[in-house]
Structure formats: C-alpha cells, structure tokens
Amino acid sequence: MTHEPEHGPAPHEHDDDSPRSDLTAMLPILDTAPEGTRVVPRHKSGGPQVIKLRPVQQEDGGYKSVYAELTRPTPASIFRGVVRGTGEVLITMGLVVLFFAAYEIWGKTAEINGHQDTLTQQLDKEWNQPVAPTTAPPASPGATPSKAPAAYPGSALARLYVQKMRKDPWVVVEGVKPADIEFAPGHYPQSAKPGAVGNFAVAGHRAPGIWWDMDKVGAGDIVVVETKDTWYVYRVYQNRIVKPNAIEVVAPVPSKPGEQPKKAVLTLTTCNPKLDNYERMIVHAELTRTQPKTAGRPAELA
Amino acid sequence: MYAWIWRKLPFGVPGKLAGSLLLLAGIAALLWWVVFPAVDPLLPMNDGQITE
Fold first, then answer.
1. Domain total of chain A
2. What pLDDT is stored for residue A45 in this prediction?
3. Nearest neighbour of B48 by CB, restricted to A100, A203, A249
4. Looking at residue A219, which CATH number applies to its domain?
5. Could you tell me which residues come within 8 angstroms of residue A283 by beta carbon, excluding any fewer than 6 positions away?
6. pLDDT at res. A33
7. pLDDT cut 90: percent of chain A above it
8. Chain B residues with CB within 8 Å of chain A CB
9. Which of A146, A179, A184, A242 is deepest in the core (most CB within 10 A)?
10. How confident is the model at residue A10, as a pLDDT?
11. Pick from B1, B32, B37: which is nearest to A89 by CB?
C-alpha cells in the first residue's frame, strides 16, 4: 500500500491522464475550409469522410443540399437505374424458372407419392371389403360378373408393377383426362379390363415419380397387374414411339383397329421425349399367365 | 429493386437480414405450394395419353 505510489504504475497513470486531455482541450480546431465543404472525420484514424447534410444558400437566394450535385438525377443515372432494374428483374425470373424446374422434379414427385399413398389405402380398403353386395345375385348365367361397381373416373382400379422402372407399384385410376392422371396412371375407359381379352391400355405422365424411365422398358421385361383377387403377369414384346394421335395403339388389337381380339394384351402410353410431348412412347405386353391372389405373390416380382 | 427493399427493411442490419430471409422464405413457399401446382397442369408435357 505504501510502496506503490513510488514505483510501478502510478507515474504512468499520471502521464496518461493529464497531458493528453490538456492537449485536446487547449488546441482549437482550425476551420479554414470554405462554407459547405468542410470535412468532418468520423474517426481520428481517418476512414470514410462524411459531409454533414445541410442546406447551402445559393447565389440566387435559394437553398440546396450539400449533396445536390451528387444526388440529382441525370440522364446517365436514370439510364443506370433502368439497366440495373431490368437486370434484377431478369435474374429474378431466371431464378423462379430454375425453382420451378426443381419443383417439377422433387416437388411433383413428393406430391405424386402422397397421392399414390392415399390411393393405395383406398384400394386396400376396397379390396378388403366383403364382396357380398356385388356378387350376391349371380342369377343370370349369361351376364359377365362385373367385379367392381362401375369404376368412376379417378377411382383406384388396380396396382401396376413395372419393376424395370420402379420397385414399388403404381395405383392405376380410371380415366385418362388430365385431372384423372395428374398423380396416377389412368386406364383408358374404352379399353379392356385387366387380364381380359383385348387391350388393357394405361396412360401415364413422363414425370419423375411416374413413367420417367419408360425408355428402359424393353422386350422381355415383366409387367404385373394386381386386381382384387388375381395377379396378371404380362411380358413386354415391344417399345416404340408413335405420333400423339396414333389411337390405333390402344385398339383391342394394337395397330389393327376394328379387328376382333383373341389375346389379352397390355399397352402403356406416355410422353416422349422427356419434358416434351410431340411424340408418345408405347409399351406393348402380352399376358403370359395369371395367378390367384390366394397363391401368393408371383415369382416374377422382386 | 433489391437495394430499395434493403433500404425499406427495418431494425438495422440484423433486422434487415432476418426480414430478407423471411421475405425469401415466404415467396418460395408461395411459389412451391400455390403457384407451381397451379401452373403445372398447363404444361404441354403433362399429356401422356393418346388422343385424336
């Protein structure tokens, strides 16, 4: 306590305090700059210098901001503003389009999968219901026993496995109107029922999540259709590209409209090329065998 | 445009950053869940069916 004033820090403190504050207090700031142009340093170390905003009197008696000369719009500044604004708008539009492309790939797939889950539940529920009401009056032997109570557009119809494209099946709905096939492949209403003699024709989007990889399906590949009580195993015999109006591919005998069908075939139609629609990709398959659901899952399925 | 938005956003730099992120997220959500699903069916590549 008693030693400290004599040694160490005490003289330093004294040096730090008094002379500097005295210096700043005593030295006046010399203001030799003309009116309106004085520069006030923001920091002692220099750095950006800011002119204080204030009005400056003009020769004609009016007032103007100190910054008037710098901020007044000129033809050049207006031009720069227009160019900058246009550039920003164009870049923004480009980003929005890129974002839309991302939506088409990931957002759409998620949406399709969500709807497919709903349809799967719907189908399971329907198939697990007792069949009593529809099959109870099979009195007339001539009438074909229609299993489903007349599928309405958009209702789930069957499950379709094309494992060359995807391991999981798709739920096929009734109808090929844009609203029907937005999230699921759709059955052409005029075409045959699954497994029946004739052409079971199905349309689907060339979207990731539906039939994006249709080009990988070729002759020999297996397509399986699962209905309430039967598995139908088809073998692909052709993959070809046609014009969008080639309705003969969905005729009961593909490419031979008007002919009486003898075989059960399956036709898948989708857009070609990817992300465009000036052609259609068609896959034809032929029924090779059927298997009741009670006999378990067909060996062809992985 | 962006400079103007930046100037209009309140609460200093942190507020401006938070505001920009909020604006960006809002616009992205609006596009992803409202605009894009509405625009998508109008695209030509959605017709997979064969028609006359």
1. 1
2. 60
3. A203
4. 2.40.260.10
5. A214, A217, A223, A236, A238, A239, A267, A268
6. 60
7. 25
8. 1-2, 28, 31-32, 36-37, 39-41, 44-52
9. A184
10. 44
11. B1
